[in-house]
């Protein structure tokens, strides 16, 4: 599986090919990131990479998820 690592980056667009649509994207200390995926009609669909997260303690460990606060 292809893996991309993006670190300390402000503003990037990642274009994935048809064969790399299942790539893992690992990010840290980055913002304004978008991933563009090729669609069946030949156009690209743009998906933002989340920048804001919520971390809570569930009684035994920390749990982090994407924040839905806009």
Question: Would you summarize the structure shown here?
Answer:
Belongs to the CAP family. The protein is mainly β.
Describe this structure in words.
- This is DE Adenylate cyclase associated.
- Belongs to the CAP family.
- One of its GO terms (cellular component) is cytoplasm.
- The strands form 3 sheets. A 3-stranded mixed sheet has the order 2-4-5, with no helix packed on it. A two-stranded parallel ribbon has the order 1-3.
- It has one domain (3-66): Pectate Lyase C-like (3 Solenoid).
- The chain is elongated, with a radius of gyration of 15 Å.
- 0% of the residues lie in helices and 56% in strands.
- It contains no helices and 7 strands.
- It is mainly β and 70 residues long.
Strand order of the largest sheet: 2-4-5
Q: Describe the oligomeric state of these chains in a short phrase.
A: single chain
CATH topology: Pectate Lyase C-like
The total beta strand count reads: 7
* CATH-defined architecture: 3 Solenoid
Task: Sum up the overall morphology in one term.
Answer: elongated
Q: How far apart are the termini? A: 32 Å
Radius of gyration: 15 Å
Backbone structural class: mainly beta
CATH C-level label: Mainly Beta
Poorly predicted regions are none
Mean pLDDT: 95
| Helix content percent band | under 10%
Number of domains: 1
Number of helices: 0
The biggest beta sheet is recorded as: 3 strands, mixed
Q: In percent, how much strand structure appears in the residues?
A: over 45%
Element-level helix/strand string: EEEEEEE
Pfam family, one: CAP_C
Domain C-CAP/cofactor C-like: 1-49
Family: Belongs to the CAP family.
Organism: Ancylostoma duodenale
